[in-house]
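Q: Start with the shorter request: fold the first protein.
A: Done. Sequence, then structure:
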Amino acid sequence: MESRALMTLGGLSIADLTALLMMGLTLITTVASILLWLSTRHSVHLLVTQVQHQRSDSYTDAKRQIIDSHRDIFFGLLNIPTLLENFTQANGLDARAWELHKISAFLINQVMLGYLHFRSGIIDAVHFEGFKRDACDVFSYRTVRSHWEEVKFSHTEEFRCFVESELIPLPIENDETPDPI
């Protein structure tokens, strides 16, 4: 009878106690596995977000470097009048019109860089609203709007939609007043 009492504890046999212990360990292992899965999933999501942000930053930085080098070339030409004269004459360009064309291109590119910084999370929404006000001013210039019409399809559809839906004011009347550039 004593051996029978040793075989049970609280009315449960050793086999029942072993099964309960295995069930408890299985439950703990399952919960730990789920928590590990959730943690891993979160880590992978963070990693993917970082890679996307890094890719956006690289793209924006590459665009900025290209724009900066174009601007350096342009200002180099402007600072050497004989070179500017030779360049415009060789290409059959009016120097003043070419200068306005290039300034308009640089202003559009600056707006594009600001937009890319916003899309990649470098500029937050609060600061972007101020940027948009400034960008609206840029697109109020007739030379910028004219240049935009020439180049808008070379930009991404997303940027085109942003410019045309949020930045471009009502059409300007055909007056002959010069641009305030």
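Q: Next, the second protein, separately.
A: Sequence, then structure:
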Amino acid sequence: MTQSRQDTIAGALSLGLGLCLLLWLIPHWVEPDPDLRLPVSLVPQVVALGFIVCGTIMLAKGIHAGRQNEQPEGGGFDQGELRGLAVMMVILIVGTLGFEVLHFLVVAPAIVAVSMWVFGPVRPVSLSLTAAIGPVVIWVLATQVLGRVLP
């Protein structure tokens, strides 16, 4: 796969993610807090705009380079990487839907563990510790320190 094709695909995915965040996920999942001076959705909206800007630039770069008849070059995605990307997207979608049914402390460690397992050989101790410690720290910070409710 040529570099221009990679840029086009990555740009389109980034642009789509940014739009999805800005138009659907943030308005539906971020709860306003009247006690704060700045809206809770400010940082997620800035991140979403960053995805949109970067995705648009990459998409334009990929389309522009493709029109200039860029010669195929070595490298690019191979079939295993594309399968890994597809599997990771499915894991994240299923995990996101799982948050609606199960608690954060059940779904988040599962997402981390499966993601680590998919992308290569990992020692069981490393996998267990990473899958357990990260989500627990996030949960404690969000619920106890920030006073926010996680699904």
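Q: Describe the second briefly.
A: The first helix runs from residue 3 to 29. The chain is about 75% helix and 0% strand.
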